[in-house]
Design goal:
Structural class: alpha/beta
Helix content: 40-55%
CATH topology of the largest domain: Aldehyde Dehydrogenase, Chain A, domain 1
Number of helices: 14
Number of strands: 17
CATH class of the largest domain: Alpha Beta
Number of domains: 2
CATH architecture of the largest domain: 3-Layer(aba) Sandwich
Strand content: 15-25%
Amino acid sequence: MDVKAYMVEVGKAARKAASVMAAVSTERKNKALLSTIDALNTQRDMLIRENQKDLDQARANKLQPAMVDRLALTPERIDGMIEGLRQVATLDDPIGVINDLKFMPSGIQVGKMRVPLGVIGIIYESRPNVTVEAASLCIKSGNATILRGGSEAIHSNNAIASCIATGLSAAGLPETAVQVISTTDREAVGELITMPEFVDVIVPRGGKGLIERVSRDAKVAVIKHLDGICHAFIDSDADIQKAYDIVLNSKTQRYGTCNTLETLLVDTSIADAVIPGLAERFTAKGVELRGCEKTLEILVGAKEATEEDWSEEYLAPILSIKVVNGMDAAIQHINHYGSHHTDTIITESYTKGREFLTRVDSSSVMINASTRFADGFEYGLGAEIGISTDKIHARGPVGLLGLTSEKFVVFGDGHIRT
């Protein structure tokens, strides 16, 4: 395959589809989403069968268990994809909405209209359910999308793509509004991120190496996050049982996600009371604990944490623990070592909670809640196209609004400038 020529054809088709999608009614976009649900339901056996091919190959290639877990397309995850589609279909359509309309002294009316970004390229690894999440949000927001999944999920992604194409066709929309790159050649990524004539935004979802490469080489705008180094801080005013529940869920509900807890901070005044109980619970879950000097005094047998541990996204049953002298020290640690993704405080102090919200520089900051809630589905976005730790355009889980922009619109009646 001539990858460059292939990607040009994909880009041309996407740009053409984007011009159609920008003017499609909400009713037709919702019909495409609901028809995709029907296709997924009808093709469940095919989806599981194709996914099994990817799982067999992943195990043969000795992928890490966390990666295999991300790759698996279980009946429950198919249900999750369907629920995500249904939620996106019920969301208000932002496209065409005009805000801030007001008369100017000249007599003209000026406002801002919500519009699609155009063509969105999405590069992701392992998780085939991202194909549905990304496609649904792009369809509802009037964008065309080019999806490049990891080679390890090629069979799963192609199977899902066929269901999406069925949904688009049923609504009378161009099937090229959602295109999954059919080649596993890595050259396709290089082409996709350097086609500003066809692609308006790139969203990389994957490992640090992928995102660093895309950020370095892309010739179009990028919405990204590099790491998910998430923290929980157990404050001196914490409810201990809440702390146990929140911290355990943040770490062990799933290990291979970017909103999983990686570093636990504990106020020194309650460390002796809290850490042993937490350690017992984590040990029962098979989690390896790595601690600072004070933690090692409390937990005999725990591994010593190195400087690198505080900046590590494990994506595995490993947790680093540091005892800190108050909230100031906790916030300093988070803002220095964290990735500005998600951080939570466990406290019964309203004042401390609000201060934590204000001072922690992350895209999601929480009080008395698991970091695992940092997710578009849980935030009511229906689904997410990714999580942005950037500060410009979009931050946090990127849903419908993150895939749109605004343009000024002016209404006149023969007005001229004098």
